[in-house]
Amino acid sequence: MALARTFAIALDGVRGHVVEVEADISAGLPAFVLIGLPDTALGESRKRVGAAAVNAGCPLTQKKLTVNLSPAALPKQGSGFDLAIAIAALSAAGAVPSGPAAGAVHLGELGLDGRLRPVPGLLPAVLAAREAGFARVLVPAGSADEARLVDGIDVVGVTGLRAAAIVHGAELDPVDEDPVLPTAVEVRSAAEPDMAEVAGNEEAVEALVAAAAGGHHLSMVGPPGAGKTMLARRLPSLLPDLSDADALEATCIRSLTGLGVGAQLVRRPPFEAPHHTASAAALVGGGSGRITPGAIVRATHGVLFLDEAAEFPPSVLDALRQPLENGSITIHRARGAASFPARFQLVLASNPCPCGHYGSSDAECTCSPMARRRYLARMSGPLIDRVDIRLTVRRLGLAALRSASQAQAGVRTSRDLRLRVVAARARAAERLRGTEWVRNADVAGSWLRAGERRLGSTAIAPLDRALERGAITMRGYDRTLRLAWTLADLDDASAPDIDHVGRALFLRRGISA
């Protein structure tokens, strides 16, 4: 008898696919049929939409209603299709003009009272609608600020189904109803831990500055109380604010995880520190039904800190190897696959042995040599080979603590160090202009070893000898080159010399801090 359509968005990771929602009313016994590979939550929308329409004062037809979600082969998940299904059904019945409804995207979950509820992933869904060429999107009023972070598309916030129908020209009287607000946004404290609180450990602080300047991965090994965790938690304070593109991607990930976004993009680099009992799915993402992002995805454009790294199961740590190389993770399940960005900076911290006292001057280690080797071997060679900077952090004595406190009082703050990082990154960005890279850690080794970037034989001699002796792998060779360029950028040098290469090799093979 009647056919109408509108549109919604199905999310695949942080990417969105346009879904055409078709509603057909035909003769037959009253029924509400939903087809197009819906999951359980989406299949239950028949009950939600029916009750919401009645309570909103615009009941659905009493004839046979068939709703198709096209493309039919694409799995659809979640309750964010409710509004689109309801508008398509009302449009097929003639209660809502079909023209305006067919030109907009509808996002949101309906409550039984007819009000519209926020859904996770609203920001990437609106972004996908804009990229598909849509000019208007209807979203829950409580999440309108989040949706308006996307420029170039008309965002209409509606409190419920009745208000959405009126927006499209339905002849209904408006009613006052309170919008359903999203979960309170967890605001990260603006006062990040400051490097000024770190006493001594000058080499370690300089290594963290190099890591921040080039985006290099870092590992720290040392006894309890040496300051590994304190240093790692202050690394984000050295990183510059995110660019517009990176901030939008980080905010999309936050929206997808349901943490709440608000009216501003995420500008500070995220920081994730999962417990050492975390599973591989918690770290990289997964799930038996809906594929959700893990800690490495939430840490995109920020820092992933694995404290007590040797306590993580080896299989969990080895799951990081491919994301570290590719900068992304694709999770495959029987119902499909989802791809997420995973461009994070890895920081590992571990004790040198099970008891933690190996190499300490104030306590005796009770571990056998085999136990020590087995403990650190939980962090596999292929994983460690992807870490550019390796520190051995030692405890400070009382005399060293006092002298360090007097020498650096009020001098070495995170703000001062961040200025050095920003300047070094600006030099790297200028050198990498016209390429796909912006940080030294991302540059291909073949690019650094060719053309005018190729270093002279004198400067590269220590690295060549290390490769010839088998002290480093070819991957380690390229990573040491990248680190040498970062050290040169920090020193405002036009290119690394033998000192920069030697220092980079020293940092990669381990230093005493």
Question: What does this entry look like structurally?
Answer:
The chain is an alpha/beta fold and 513 residues long. Helices cover 37% and strands 17% of the residues. It contains 22 helices and 19 strands. Strands 11-14-17-10-18-19 form a 6-stranded parallel sheet. A 4-stranded mixed sheet has the order 1-2-4-3. The longest helix has 18 residues, at 414-431. The radius of gyration is 28 Å and the shape is elongated. The relative contact order is 0.10.
In brief, what are we looking at here?
Helix content is 37%, strand content 17%. The longest helix has 18 residues, at 414-431.
Keywords:
22 helices, alpha/beta, 4-stranded mixed β-sheet
The tally of strands reads 19
Mean pLDDT: 90
Helical region count? 22
Query: What is the share of helical residues?
Result: 25-40%
Secondary structure blueprint with pairings:
Elements: E1 2-12, E2 15-26, E3 31-35, H1 40-43, H2 45-55, E4 64-70, H3 82-92, H4 98-102, E5 105-106, E6 109-110, E7 116-117, H5 122-131, E8 136-140, H6 144-147, E9 154-158, H7 161-167, H8 202-214, E10 218-221, H9 228-233, H10 244-256, E11 271-272, H11 280-284, E12 285-286, E13 292-293, H12 295-298, E14 303-306, H13 314-318, H14 321-326, E15 328-333, E16 336-341, E17 345-350, H15 369-376, H16 381-384, E18 389-392, H17 398-408, H18 414-431, H19 445-448, H20 457-469, H21 474-490, H22 498-509, E19 511-512
Parallel strand pairs: 3-4, 5-8, 8-9, 10-17, 10-18, 11-14, 14-17, 18-19
Antiparallel strand pairs: 1-2, 2-4, 6-7, 12-13, 15-16
Helix pairs in contact: 2-3, 8-18, 8-21, 18-21, 20-22, 21-22
